[in-house]
Design brief:
alpha/beta, 7-stranded mixed β-sheet, 8 helices, elongated, 409 residues, 28% helix, single chain
């Protein structure tokens, strides 16, 4: 399949072309039904010969070219309707009746706040031109009326409020929120690209004569800004905001990160350091605990405490150690301490060991020369007002010891 993309250097065009290349080059294998041999990118700097060559060979056309911010309103009609007409005339010249898609806008409704929009008028004219072309030639026509779009590579301070605010917050620039209650209908660029792939497979989503992206988000300007400020605070608070699957927050976070300057792409941590090693909290989450890293020097034992409700997972990623756990209290059947359960762990054969509530536990560095490095997850961030942590040595002389993998030792 040979694909023509007009407006290939624009926001949508660039994202589409790069993702088409990934399919063409076999890097994206999620769409086995799409086989791409050539991609023709046409933009403002392309000449007419380039357009003719592409139109003579294309098996599918994505028309994403358009004018958004002209100096004169008459340029809307020239850039949107005018180019669309030129594109279709060129396809007719070569009797190419391949499917054609046009990127229109909700402003083409000319309803509500879009009433009288010159941009909307030019988009509507382009739509009508495409529908007429389909009737005359029998070519399949796909008209998409996109709402506001957002995602990586979108130009700030142009025609995207999301891009403008992401760029301002990420780069510590001044910005103004005139009305936090302003509502926006938004489509994320990756969702749009997936719909373009659907269109290539003949599975486009339709509502009457118009096509649409099935995944969209309705949010207020205030919600957007609040999320962005929480993203910005993350390196200081270590709190990762909630980002549920397919949520607007998850997509906005990806967009925000794409605007970070180089000096903010890396950040440090505060560590608790003593003669035993160091403990560093890496990340906190809202409702999913915290992640930390613990470094124990040779021969050092860390822990020796238990929790009522807190539970943890230890994963040794470097070194050689021993994790011990013992249930608190006396076994009524034996009248003795509960047995010590031991897990030998190494970075070469990583395993997750769970620290159970009501069990005192420790981790011992068995090496005489190397540090023991352990990634630790806890079900809740540490709260100094309610630490739920109580000192209790795990192993006492004469205690029975059990290794679940080796039996009694």
């Amino acid at each position: 399949m040979r694909i023509l993309v007009t407006g290939s250097e624009g926001f949508v065009g660039r994202n589409l072309v790069w993702n088409l290349k990934e399919i063409r080059d076999g890097k994206n294998r999620t769409r086995p039904n799409i086989y791409i041999t050539e991609i023709y990118g046409i933009d403002i700097n392309s000449d007419h010969e380039d357009l003719e060559y592409a139109c003579s060979r294309a098996d599918f056309v994505f028309n994403l070219a358009g004018v958004n911010r002209p100096k004169d309103n008459k340029e809307y009609m020239e850039g949107n309707f005018g180019f669309a007409s030129k594109l279709l005339d060129t396809l007719k010249k070569f009797d190419n009746k391949c499917p054609v898609m046009i990127s229109s806008s909700v402003q083409a409704t000319l309803e509500g706040r879009f009433e009288g929009s010159e941009y909307g008028k030019s988009k509507l004219a382009g739509e009508e031109l495409f529908f007429k072309y389909g009737e005359e030639t029998g070519a399949k026509v796909l008209v998409y009326r996109f709402p506001n779009l957002f995602g990586k590579w979108c130009r700030p301070n142009y025609n995207s409020a999301v891009a403008t605010f992401c760029n301002a917050v990420a780069n510590d620039l001044e910005y103004t929120v005139n009305d936090r209650s302003t509502e926006l209908d938004l489509v994320y660029i990756d969702d749009l690209i997936e719909e373009m792939f659907d269109a290539l497979e003949g599975k486009e989503h339709r509502d009457g004569k118009y096509c649409f992206v099935p995944t969209a988000h309705h949010v207020t300007l205030g919600e957007i800004v609040d999320l962005l400020l929480s993203f910005k605070a993350m390196p200081e608070t270590l709190y990762m905001p909630s980002i549920p699957e397919d949520s607007f927050a998850k997509k906005l976070y990806s967009t925000y990160l794409s605007y970070l300057p180089a000096e903010k792409m890396s950040y440090g941590f505060k560590s608790s350091v003593d003669n035993r090693g160091n403990f560093t909290e890496l990340m906190r989450t809202l409702g999913h605990g915290q992640i930390s890293i613990n470094v124990a020097k040779p021969g050092i034992t860390r822990g020796q405490h238990w929790h009522n409700s807190k539970w943890e997972i230890f994963i040794v990623v470097s070194g050689h150690g021993l994790i011990q756990e013992r249930r608190i209290g006396i076994d009524p059947e034996t009248g003795e301490n509960y047995p010590v359960i031991e897990f030998e762990v190494t970075g070469e054969q990583m395993k997750a060991v769970q620290m159970l509530p009501g069990y005192t536990h420790n981790i011992i560095n068995l090496s005489e020369t190397e540090n023991l490095v352990t990634v630790m997850w806890a079900n809740e961030p540490f709260d100094p007002e309610h630490p739920d942590t109580f000192y209790e040595e795990v192993s006492i002389a004469g205690d029975k010891k059990i290794n679940p993998e080796k039996g009694n030792i």
